[in-house]
Specification:
The protein is α/β, with parallel strands linked by helices. It is built from 8 helices and 7 strands; from the N terminus they run αβαβαβαβαβαβαβα.
Length: about 250
Amino acid sequence: MYYTMYFLYKYCYSTVEHKYNSGAEHPMRISVIIPTLNEEGAIGRVLDDMPENPIDELVVVDSSTDNTPRIADKRGAQVIFESKRGYGRALQTGIENTAGDILVYIDGDNTYDPREIPKIVQPILNGEYDVVLGSRLRGRMFPGAMSPLIKLGNLLLSLFFDVLLLKRITDSQSGFRAMRRHFLEGLTYSEYGMPFVTEQLIKLIKRGARVGEVPICYRPRIGETKLCKWTDGFKIFKVILKGRFLGGY
């Protein structure tokens, strides 16, 4: 087990080193948004691994009752308190309080590796895509990172998304993604919980955004999950159906 974890760690880190030229200049500002809810055991690690380049702005949107905001503040992140709980609500608050031309979402539970941010944003900087998703299912998954049930759910939701929206995406539910800000201007949402990113992605596709994926590493989370498997899965499925058949987006 130890050697497997070590190999995956080295693979992830070496992939970032070889895919991105950290000395390259880019004209667009990049803001990273981290939604947090009681992540005191993980947020320090996430921020410690955050690369200085190419990030221009780092914002933690927090609804915690533990030490998460204090830990984030001590590590130099801008902390914004959000009284209304909800994954999507935190992300939207981050959007409204950042200035970057490119926005990056990454969870604060240490499942995603911040050192892969350059790999996520590079296709946008290159002009290849307007939205880039980090695909856990195309990348390297650490042992215990995703249960068989959750993996099956992600596969099914992505399959529904592909078939109904006519867009080939392997991991529509990834919490690690980047996008050009101007595609978000004027958007409103019906869901501000877990389905938020799915509704947002549908609207971006309908606005003509070019969507791509890059393989990423996925690690076991630190702390308790905020996902309600069946409830959130059903809500996400409804969002996909609405986006395809009801013309709600």
